[in-house]
């Protein structure tokens, strides 16, 4: 079945899906394969659950006209997404980066939604499957698409750009993330810049943070840039007023008070303001969108639990984002400070040195009582009596049961696999 024929079937459906546990009625089911499963085996279950058609790539499963046989389901999903995106012919904004992608995407969506009908990546469904599904959620009512792109190996951002055909793009930052796959910070820069490569090759517009030397360097020989930052030479000029406990800034003569903490979130907000400015969103609407945005999903949330106040930033972590969180915590003028840090994953051969670098910083800076959780942190050399190591979460749990925490100001930060939000249950 060719892509034109498949597209006609897709137009009969409400949406596309890949999970039989989340089937929408009259959807188009793609029977993807994984290391430990064959989606073709679940095609009949998808139909029983309400799917209208199933895309399969093994002939023995295509038993009637509801089964659409193709050579490769994953490639077909990606090709259909591109075909659909091109048919819609709407502006698509792509963003990637080492840190802050999802928060930035949510902020951009909040700002643009003040004027346009938008369709944006849900959560962080930002990989080779999530990006096509995001594109296929767009329809004739969509005026602007916002696509988050994630990667942990070279060539992945290039693939996602080739699927999404973005008209605009930005990179939040270059940091020490997924070093196991990228090899080094130089590898990170090269891989993330695959988005720049696509945009430049196709003469598309790039949003550039003038205060990030790496972004400026990577785009210095390209003309179609929209600059933002703290300099008067930028297209959108901003001014930091305060970052503690929440980011407050000045834009277009107006003060914007966000519900996000930390200098690192100033850059995320700045991107959204710049994009809003480019797309002619009224300044007061930009202000309202930023001020109304509330962080969720353990991303820079400030929570209250009993007598304790918590900065919950445990959605994910890498050396760059962890150091930024610690620097921000250091600047907070609060008593009773306490830190919980969980292992950082996907660092490969640099894991030992990067975890030790965090410990060295903690020993050189008085930030309160520190709890380090996980096998990597447990291997570090600690000399300061204010720093405790716990190889497992269970060991930490036992300690907190014996030494209850109250009247404290906490920072909780760790990789997703550490699930440090569980600490909230112990407070």
Automatic annotation (TrEMBL):
User: Keywords for this entry?
Assistant: ATP-binding, Cell cycle, Cell division, Cell shape, Cell wall biogenesis/degradation, Cytoplasm, Ligase, Nucleotide-binding, Peptidoglycan synthesis
Would I find Iron-sulfur among this entry's keywords? no
Q: Name one GO molecular function term.
A: ligase activity
Where does the Mur ligase C-terminal domain start and stop, copy by copy?
Answer: 299-378
Location within or outside the cell: Cytoplasm
- Known catalysed reaction(s)? D-alanyl-D-alanine + UDP-N-acetyl-alpha-D-muramoyl-L-alanyl-gamma-D-glutamyl-meso-2,6-diaminopimelate + ATP = UDP-N-acetyl-alpha-D-muramoyl-L-alanyl-gamma-D-glutamyl-meso-2,6-diaminopimeloyl-D-alanyl-D-alanine + ADP + phosphate + H(+)
Which is an annotated Pfam family here? Mur_ligase
Q: What is its main location?
A: cytoplasm
Which pathway features in its UniProt record?
Cell wall biogenesis; peptidoglycan biosynthesis
Q: What are the transmembrane regions?
A: none
Answer whether the UniProt record assigns the keyword Cytoplasm to this protein. yes
User: Where is each Mur ligase central domain found?
Assistant: 96-275
**Which residues take part in binding ATP?**
97-103
Tell me the ranges covered by the Mur ligase N-terminal catalytic domain, including all copies.
18-81
Record EC number: 6.3.2.10
Q: Which PANTHER family match?
A: UDP-N-ACETYLMURAMOYL-TRIPEPTIDE--D-ALANYL-D-ALANINE LIGASE (PTHR43024)
Q: Which HAMAP family match?
A: MurF
Which family is annotated?
Belongs to the MurCDEF family. MurF subfamily.
Briefly state the protein's biological role.
Answer: Involved in cell wall formation. Catalyzes the final step in the synthesis of UDP-N-acetylmuramoyl-pentapeptide, the precursor of murein.
Q: What is this protein called?
A: UDP-N-acetylmuramoyl-tripeptide--D-alanyl-D-alanine ligase
Q: Which organism encodes this protein?
A: Gelidibacter pelagius
